[in-house]
Amino acid sequence: MSTAQRRSRPGGRPGGTTAHRELARLAGAVTALEWSPRGEQLAAGGPDGVVMVGASGGGRRAEPVRTHEVGRVRAVTWSGGGTWLAAVGDQEVTMIDSGGEVLAAMGTRAWGPVVAWAPDRPALAVGSGQDLAVVDPSGRLVLEHPWLGAGVNDLVWVGAGCLAVAMRGGLMLVAVGDRAVPGSGGPGGHTEAPGWIDIAGLVTTLAAAPGGGRVAAGNIDGSVRVVCTITNEAVEMTDYDSTVDLLAWQADGRRLAVASADEATVWELDGIEVVSGEPVLLGNEPCQPTTVTFHPTDSLVAVGDTAGSVALWSIPSEGDAVEVATLAAGAEVTATAWHPGGTTLAVGTAAGRVLAWAAG
Amino acid sequence: MIDPTRGTLSRDNRVPVTLVAGWLGAGKSALARRLASDGAAWVGSWGWEGPGARDDTASGELAIEEEVAERRAGCACCAVRWDLVRSLPSLALRSPAPSRILVEVGALSDVALAGGTMLRERRLRHRVRLDGAIALVDGPAVACRLAAGQDPWPHPRAWDHLAFADSILVGRACRLSTAAVDEVLEVVAQVNPLAEVRIDSGDGAPELPTGGFGAAGVAKVEAIEVPRPPSRAREGGVAMVDVVDVAGELEWDDLVGWLNRVHRETGGELLRARGVVAVRGDDRRRLVSGVRTMLDQWAGRPWAGASRGSRLVLAGRDLPVEVLQDALAAVSRT
């Protein structure tokens, strides 16, 4: 495994503040935002459930808001085709179809479940405490992995049928098959013997690279690794002063945005090789990033922070990042999501506002 | 490794956190329930006490399994409570925002680890601030052990919880005679003579210690009337909580080096340090407060014409205070 160390680099010039529009207002902090894959709807998680905002014109025109009161929501995620939405609560996962009907609600044994839709089938992986299961949109258990022995901190699909699970001490790779295997714990599938990649410390968060085969893993020890899930080779980027807990890939998989509590950076990668040996630092002033989100098609990255601003950074192929625009959101930024068309950035705040920013 | 960080927030709207510690059956959960009704959120601990504590979720509180994560392999003082790192930020963002978050520290759990997590983990520091620590004592249980000629504290963790606390609440004292209450108070004071000790009447929610880890609380250290003789928790002359006074000024690096030695080389265990320091070249008092080797610092009142000196209150286990005082005096310049 190769290792690269980050170092400070001057940031870009400050940009101007641009106009925005309020799409919805929740009763408390917006905890999650995600556009449906074709961009017709924006799902916003909050204290009372999920608020769905119909959108057109690239997300710039909002339609009447529908609210699904499913309790406090910590995360929302659409299935690949946009047919189903999973709303994740403190100890519950609720399945909602695109028409707004609640299909199922599943309780979890431990607090703070994490979920991920399979890219190739209507199946949702659910990790909770030391449990790992895959369910279908109706909530039916497809398979249940045997006791894991450590808590699941995050999970992502890294290609068809392969699930990466973030745990203490490493990354578990679970191959999820289609065949029903007696005694596998579920009626419709099976898991094969898991692979394991040792990573010292505790893996806090994962991001699967577009195209599959690689996964970025943030760590509590202030490092991030990009692991090839085929060869198990990895590159480690170190020296963040605090836990790395925010990761986002550029759409072409060549750049990875990495943020800890005090800074946001972008690494350029070729496979599992760091191209420049050091990252681009987004800003030379201390900031406390709360979100990082790459534009769906361009080399733009949006960074929200505790001070209530969203900075839009352009990452050139060489040289420093340039801050091209800034949005004053009025309160701590708690969630951001690019419209799939790339013309609108949805911004959620701790004050409950959901804003549409024509920032593309 | 000392990692000093400045307390800089002028408009601090972070949610205050109070640690609620105590031995088995001391009434931690009952206290948290009483306080939670006043708008406080509560993080219950399964810790080592087993899954019986799961029932806590029935009353709407968050019960989460304790999980310790080392940030550096083998470095206990770099460890954090991962369960708190995960859960406290989302608790702080709830609507309406909790007036306070109570973190229950299990009987066998490391109270300094829970407190240090809130200083060390910066993502947590953005949303919450460590405000105080209260330890609960089951009065009848301690009295029974004393009457039987037993050690009143069944495990070193029980000392730790008392030594770490800003205030100590003796519960169920109504079941004891006045003489027995006095005996319990005496053994409590032997461990932590500087904590505010109260008898829990059981009526309403007791007052919580506030500001003990912040500048205002630390500034009070200067006015502490030092108990003499200092506390002796065990035969062998080692202190749980004691005061180190030195005249003159200190180089900041000398103070940091000294604290590192307290933690690493004395054979004891430093849980908490706070105090007022005369730093060379600084016209103002330097207020410091920390858990293990993590320190916050603030600028205090100007020295003006006052004679300069430093006072540190140390809480820990098996700390050779006289040796430490001599070591600090050796690097102090008058």
Describe this structure in words.
The complex is a heterodimer of chains A (360) and B (334). Chain A has 360 residues and is mostly beta strands. Chain A is built from no helices and 34 strands. In chain A, the strands form seven sheets. In chain A, strands 1, 16, 17, 18, 19, 20, 21 and 22 form an eight-stranded mixed sheet that branches. Chain A has a five-stranded mixed sheet with strand order 2-31-30-29-28, with no helix packed on it. The relative contact order of chain A is 0.16. Chain B has 334 residues and is of the alpha/beta class. In chain B, helix 9 runs antiparallel to helix 10. Chains A and B meet through strand 19 of A and strand 4, helix 2 and helix 4 of B.
What labels would you give this structure?
heterodimer; A: 360 residues; mainly beta; eight-stranded mixed sheet; five-stranded mixed sheet; 34 strands; globular; B: 334 residues; alpha/beta; seven-stranded parallel sheet; six-stranded mixed sheet; 10 helices; 29% strand; disordered N terminus
Mean pLDDT of chain A: 87
DSSP strand (E) fraction of chain A? over 45%
Q: What oligomeric assembly is this protein in?
A: heterodimer
Helix coverage percent of chain B: 25-40%
Q: Report the radius of gyration of chain A as a whole number of Å.
A: 20 Å
- Give the H and E element order of chain B: EEHEEEEHEHHEHHEHEHEHEEEEH
Task: Report the count of strand segments of chain A.
Answer: 34
Shape of chain B: globular
Give the low-confidence spans of chain A: 6-17, 179-190
